[in-house]
Known about the structure:
- The structure is a single chain.
- This protein is mostly helical.
- It has 2 domains: about 10-65, Homeodomain-like (Arc Repressor Mutant, subunit A, Orthogonal Bundle); about 70-180, no CATH class.
- About 65% of the residues lie in helices and about 0% in strands.
- The protein is elongated.
Amino acid sequence: xxxxxxxxxxxxxxxxxxxxxxxxxxxxxxGTTVRDIAGEAGVDPALVIRHFGGKQALFLExxxxxxxHAPVVDGPVETMGxxxxxxxxxxxxxxxxxxxxxxxxxxxxxxxxxxxxAHDAGFVQxxxxxxxxxxxxxxxxxxxxxxxxxxxxLWVVGxxxxxATDPETIVRQYGALLQQLLxxxxx
Length: 187
């Protein structure tokens, strides 16, 4: 695989990224080719490789969690459970789009390890400095798994009862579960 050419964000690079951001969630990693992306962007397929180094690198750059966790982790840890759940349930499509694209591509070579890295960087590492106790890392990992489970139930399984539930009820109840991991009661 060739190395991408570092550069400022050119119109061609933006067009390729936009095409990939549209195609990967719609047709999946396996169902999207470099030619598809190039065609959607109106460029030669060689430019996709030149700018991004290959399909995998473009996929990972396109769907990486560019989610700003600052509003969640900058608040008090005592109310972070509800804040985190409210954040992932935001009616915007970014969290859903990225989650589903990564999940659908998780069996492609190289994507599984990138998923683990994204989970660690996106959920575990931001929590670690905020949690106390010898089991802080385990609780941070469990918190990430708990949030992932909710997203799976909503967007993969399509649990109709959960989807029909008022989001604030989910925020309150699921946020309380998450909060127990973040700030457990003293023994």
